[in-house]
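Run FMN-linked alkanal monooxygenase through structure prediction, thanks.
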Amino acid sequence: MIDVPLSALEVAMVQAGTRAVDTLRDTTAFAQRLDALGYRRLWYAEHHHSPAIGAFPPVVLTAHAAASTSAIRLGSGGVLAPNHAPIMLAEQFGTLAALHPDRIDLGIGRGPGTFDEATARALRRGAGPTTDDAYRDDVAATLRFLVEEVALGTLPEPWLLASSDAGAALAAELGLPLAFAHHIRPDNTLAALDHYRAHFSPSPWCESPRVLVCVETVCAETEDEARWLAGPMNVVKAGLLKGHSEVPFPSPEEASAHPFTAEERAGVAAFGAHQAYGTPETVLRRLTEVAKATGAEELMLVTPVYALAARLRSYELVKQHAAMP
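Sure, done. The structure for FMN-linked alkanal monooxygenase is below.
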């Protein structure tokens, strides 16, 4: 039995042989099923111009899912502050929180959401990469606008997303809950969380340190099936290890034929050692270990597998077994 709440991250992978609109339609069924299963929250990530991930604005997906579910919290995981005017983020998520009280989260991150420099510049209207000071100012301005300008009543719950010490330090300085991307930078997790807790300053948003850790999770009836389902994402990771931009998200059959180099296999295996793949028993053991090691108050599962049915089955198995003694 796992004793922390479980949530989910939707990255909207566009599967080989399908269209982005098919992925978009799947997001509704996904949100409704997680709502029924009792997951605490579902967040949407911001991506642009990717062959593997749909460019669906988190605020739009949040609005649509909130209208078609009843209890699950919804929001961004995250919207990327450098790509948006702070007052617009405040207005968008403040409006959502007023329409769906106590169900909306505003998770803010820094990355550009793309590996393509031209796309990054287009998002920022020609501006270059943001600085640490500019990012801090954008986050602080968004929070200020929520209170001073929008003021629609119930506010969204703000979170800061991070995958480094710098992001954790900013969350501590501003007194925000921290969502840490263990599924991206697992080697950074423990040091960043230690820094966050040691330097946390209470704020009106959060009285004490609060940590959510995101873990890549693939759960299936057998270990072999879990490895099969994890194969497509391993192909994407292999490309990233070589410094390539994202590649299309392959089917498990295509992934099984991918010619991994020895270096790629080692890199993928090293990353996977920090995540949770396998049968329900294996996955719950790994998630429990991550929760204990990090002291996380909540775990968020990201399950980038091919086919909606397999992805939903993974979340079903985890939730069903999480409640077992």
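The first helix runs from residue 20 to 37.
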